[in-house]
Amino acid sequence: MGLTGFGVFFLFFGMILFFDKALLAIGNVLFVAGLAFVIGLERTFRFFFQKHKMKATGFFLGGVFVVLIGWPLIGMIFEIYGFFLLFRGFFPVVVGFIRRVPVLGSLLNLPGIRSVKSNHCQTYKN
């Protein structure tokens, strides 16, 4: 969990410092390594290389590669798109968890935000 947390921290810090390629590269390596340690190497490999997730994996790992070769802005755009495609199934779970947090839950239950979330989840159910 620590490696994944440090990876997210370095990615965030690298973006704040105007896409510093060294910090983003360290963040990418730590995030992927942390993910592999948390869920295991075999499950990580199976997660990334499922047939229906190959496009998402290509964008995410391609973005990591592009950051490592020195184009951080373009690489991060690819990574964010790939990350969204890879983990979009987890977003409703995260929103459900955040709804239970006292202050954040009341914000997510506001009428305008609640209707956006419910329409978005209906799209995934269809």
From TrEMBL:
Biological role: May be involved in fusion of ER-derived transport vesicles with the Golgi complex.
UniProt family annotation: Belongs to the GOT1 family.
Key words of the record: Golgi apparatus, Membrane, Transmembrane, Transmembrane helix
InterPro entries assigned: Got1 (IPR045176), Vesicle_transpt_Got1/SFT2 (IPR007305)
Record's bilayer topology term: Multi-pass membrane protein
Annotated transmembrane regions: 6-39, 59-84
Cellular location(s): Golgi apparatus membrane
Pfam assignment, any one: Got1
GO biological process: endoplasmic reticulum to Golgi vesicle-mediated transport; retrograde transport, endosome to Golgi
Protein name as it appears in the record: Golgi transport 1B
Signal peptide (from-to): none
A Gene Ontology cellular-component term: Golgi membrane
Highest taxon, organism lineage: Eukaryota
